[in-house]
Amino acid sequence: MPDIIQLLPDHIANQIAAGEVIQRPASAVKELLENAVDAGATDIQLIINDAGKQLIQVIDNGVGMSETDARMAFERHATSKIKAIDDLFRIKTMGFRGEALASIAAVAQVEVKTKKATDTSGTLIEIENSIVTKQEPVAAANGTSIAMKNLFFNVPARRNFLKSNAAEMRHIADEFIRVSMAYPEIFFSLTANGQELFHLEKGTLKQRIVQLLGNQYNAKLVAVDEQTDYMNIFGFIGKPETAKKTRGDQYFFVNKRFIKSAYLNHAVAGAFQEMIASDSFPAYVLFIDLDPSQVDINVHPTKQEIKFEDEKIIYAFVQSAVKHALAQFSITPTLDFDLDPSIQHLDAVSKPFTAEQKSQASSSSLYQTFTQKHAAHKIDPQQKSELKHWKESVVSNESLAGSQQFESKSVQSSFTHQQQPTISETDFTQLHQTYILASTNKGMLLIHQQNAHERVLYEKYLSAADGKAIATQRSLFPSTLQLSPQDAILLQELTTDLHQLGYHIEPFGKDTFVIQGTPADVDQGNESRAIELLLEQFKHYTSDLKFSKREKLIRSLAKQHSIKPGRLLTQKEMKQLVDDLFNCTQPNATSNGFPTYMELKKEELEKMFGR
Ligand code: ADP
Ligand code: MG
Asked: What domains can you pick out in the chain, each with its CATH number?
């Protein structure tokens, strides 16, 4: 028998290796866009024909390549981004494996034109099947243009695996959005079959988000921004009312690299709890910057999943930051002024860690605590007090000290309570029988009486539904209630939950009920009307919101029983309402996400009056 093992020819080995990096046109798009960003371009154009099957071209105005570099770039393991293994842990660019261009050259016909600003002429190189077929000087603009034609022309099996043009184009648009979202300071365009689909002028992150995700987010984004020695988080979350039924507008970036993380997504969703329906998805575009040595981006070939040195701290940090932002949005009347370009964090984006910041950070003992492996479980009680000072104690002490599970409640309350103004005990003023004006140590509050009361009742009913039932007063003369057949079915379904909330209702023949008791605060004699209104309100929560029955019931009750505008309140009632509001776990908004109060700070007032 002859020996049977052979070395694969280069072009076949290259094609196999390429399969890991370039699975579909969108993978090539991602690599080319990232290279353009790494090359320092400020203007990047993506041109697609036939969903990338026929042409993918990226034109940038970045640093360009010398003739030798342009040739080298297509060799496997050719990269300018790392020189030694240690560099892997400091990497701040998008690429580093030196595989993308080699892979592209193995599975397409490639044409490169590139020129450095310092060179007088540029270079043209054509490659097919990993073999250079042409190399010559050309007149070219500064920067690089890479066109790849007929993807997988030499790997028919792969070409046949490609999906419909519509599907492949969707993947391409996804990648385009993920890269361009992270770099609002770069102009991007996407042209498909001669039609410009995106034209993204340079601007702020907020503008970029609206350009990419749509105008419905205009004026509906809340800034997130927390900085610590250990990490920074910034970006925007959609106000609760923008939450969608389908998971969609959710973007996480770590050191500007798009990542998928069910774990961090869970952290954000947790922060929105009680503000949106449990089965809807909040919108967010969040950037986490941390020392590159704290993440391992190298675990997945397409680099969308990453490992953090300590996930739990990041989880708590993200959740707290989002809660903080949610707590702020309703109390900052000039929110949109905060988002003007001068206050955008482009600087923080482009330089996540200055050398000075970094040395300061690493010399703090806190940083050292965090950088120990699994530090979260090692922090001993003496260190707790120090942790408190860690940027407004974003992480609850308990969760750091021991429990594996993060207690979202404790993180939340440590936040909301800190945000709360101290309200002076003296006069409250009611305006238009709708608003309560209160002065605080920091300025003044304008509280919407109905929204505030809705929040108070919502939390009260919520805890009653899960635990101790609300006290019932038995009616002396139980009234009967005659309903339409549909309403009767509805009420029948709700009786158990209603019982927990203080309503005792029993069926009494066809479509008829007897009201035996109501919560203590419902006026005697009005019981039937109260139930009818409740059913009306309940039906108002359209089924497409998909709240649970109980959630709808609680929301309906809170709305129905809340103090309405037009009701005159005594000093005592106003004080009670304001106290109750600030005892809520989430005092800043109604369950539907409407603000309960606004805060006007002293400084803002003084500024308005030119002081
Ligand atoms: P990596 O990005 O991991 O280094 P690539 O195969 O994507 O590997 O690119 C190889 C090298 O080619 C890069 O390190 C860079 O030096 C150079 N290069 C690629 N694209 C461009 C570009 N658009 N402009 C300038 N240089 C580029
Ligand atoms: Mg690259």
From this structure: 10-200 (3.30.565.10), 205-328 (3.30.230.10), 429-600 (3.30.1370.100)
